[in-house]
Design brief:
alpha+beta, 199 residues, 25% strand, five-stranded mixed β-barrel
């Protein structure tokens, strides 16, 4: 029994001898407090336009900002007419085929930034149809023919008019136009504000 106790004491002594002993001249210094250098929290600007208006229609900004839910759906979009395509005059034979009729609206009248304009397509096959419809409208004789498969031709479009356009918001229109930010396949419109006609 005594021999066992001696062996245990010997093992404890060996074990404690193997452990590192703190140096007598060890100096512990406290590190300076770290002051984080973080940038100031940025102030995000407000959105340039509301998403929807009081009548439930989208702005151009709004329909695009919610593109995941608005794409391939029927929507109403309110904006100002900022451009109307007119076929260029033909200066060569045979004349190149002009693009299908289309126009653009934007949230701001007179918008010049193309990325903020929304193209509207699909309301006529060619300019002749529009010219004929406008002429008949001016004489009070225009009637929409559903047999064409097209919506009523807009006969009161003018640069600066504020309109609420109805149609399908899509990436590709039936007349071959496409836009990665979306375009509107025209189904109809209401003119909310009309510019005064020049004398």
């Amino acid at each position: 029994m005594k021999s066992r106790i001696l062996v245990i004491f010997a093992m404890v002594a060996l074990a404690s001898a193997c452990e590192p002993q703190p140096a007598a001249d060890l100096t512990i210094e406290a590190l300076p407090d770290v002051q984080p250098n973080l940038p100031t929290v940025p102030t995000l600007p407000p959105p340039p336009h509301p998403t929807t208006l009081s009548d439930g229609s989208y702005t151009i900004y709004g329909v695009r900002s919610r593109i995941r839910t608005t794409i391939d759906t029927d929507v109403a979009i309110t904006g100002y007419v900022v451009g109307i395509y007119t076929p260029p005059e033909c200066e060569e034979e045979p004349c190149p085929r002009p693009a299908a009729p289309h126009f653009w609206i934007a949230d701001v009248s007179g918008e010049e930034d193309d990325s903020k304009k929304l193209m509207i397509v699909g309301y006529a096959e060619n300019q002749e149809q529009i010219d004929e419809a406008v002429e008949l409208h001016e004489r009070g004789r225009y009637e929409h023919d559903p047999a064409t498969g097209l919506p009523p031709i807009p006969v009161d479009l003018a640069i600066g008019n504020k309109i609420k356009a109805n149609g399908r918001f899509a990436f590709v229109g039936s007349s071959g136009f496409n836009n990665s930010a979306g375009l509107l396949e025209y189904a109809g419109h209401d003119t909310l504000e009309a510019v005064e006609a020049e004398d």
